[in-house]
Amino acid sequence: MTAIVEPRAKSSDEGPYQNLTLKQVIQTIPKAYFQKDPSKAWRSVLLSVAAVALGYAAIFMAPWFLLPLAWFFTGTALTGFFVIGHDCGHRSFSNRRWVNNWVGHIMMLPLIYPFHSWRLLHDVHHRHTNNMDVDNAWTPLKKEEYTAANGLFKGVYWGMRSWLWWLASVAHWAVLHFSLRNFEPRDRPRVIRSIVAVAVFAAAFFPTLFILAGPWGVVKYWLMPWLGYHFWMSTFTLVHHTVPDIQFRSGDTWNEVESQLGGTLHCDYPRWIEVLCHDINVHVPHHVSVGIPSYNLRPAYACLKAEWGPLMKETRFSWSLMKTIIGGCHIYHPEQAYQSFGSLKR
Hints:
Elements: H1 22-26, H2 38-61, H3 67-89, H4 97-108, H5 115-127, E1 141-142, H6 143-148, H7 151-161, H8 168-176, H9 188-241, H10 256-262, E2 265-268, H11 271-276, H12 284-288, H13 297-308, E3 313-316, H14 319-328, E4 331-333, E5 337-339, H15 341-345
């Protein structure tokens, strides 16, 4: 296991990234790992459907004191739905676009996630990973931006970057994915179709659940598993790009190879979580090339590690890791990557 090292000041045009291109990195991954395997893809769907069904059966049968465990398991299984939709959004689930679109929509509907809205915004993140000026996936605020913000915004940002990190994905979902202003005019018809699909699903699902199970049933069978899913979305997203030595860049200092190979973190979780979430934690090869299906991320990572290991970052999920992140990775610092909220007061 490679330990997380202390922050270091280094420009991406110095040292190991200077003459390296992303194409060179991609060429070290065997072509077989870019190939889509329909049987593996559909087995991942069956696994997730079975796990979610098991989770809801547990919720139905569990006594009240075991409900938190059932909710947590079901939320983790629902994260597998998202990861399948994630592959569909990157067109790495099927060679047929219509299959990717249909499966992506179906997997994300229970999560109330408009597929095309997420897909288009997520593409921005991949094209501009860790670019302070463009990336839309939880980039930290600069010191001057934070100090100039109003009290309400500061409070929300403080919560999302510290002890309420597990709700940050809910805020990201609500703020970005339902506003047409966040999309180019040419993309808006597809976004509208996805939002309409979510609205139709919600209009049928929630009244039916309310009638059958009452208000507690909505909380028990939907809200709590949904929050469990967002716990993992928040945690995965935060850990992927937010440790003390992962630097963000602006303008001409941004480097594609640094951002995709060294700007995301491989983090090992308990194996049952990795299985239910289809190895989304094996994130470095996914950033090197979004064309690698989720079931090929592990062997692709092994190849990258063998060739580029010194440039990559790897750790293991733990409470101490989360304390490091939520305790100090708050405000962007151009040399140290991050500074804490507390350091602003000194």
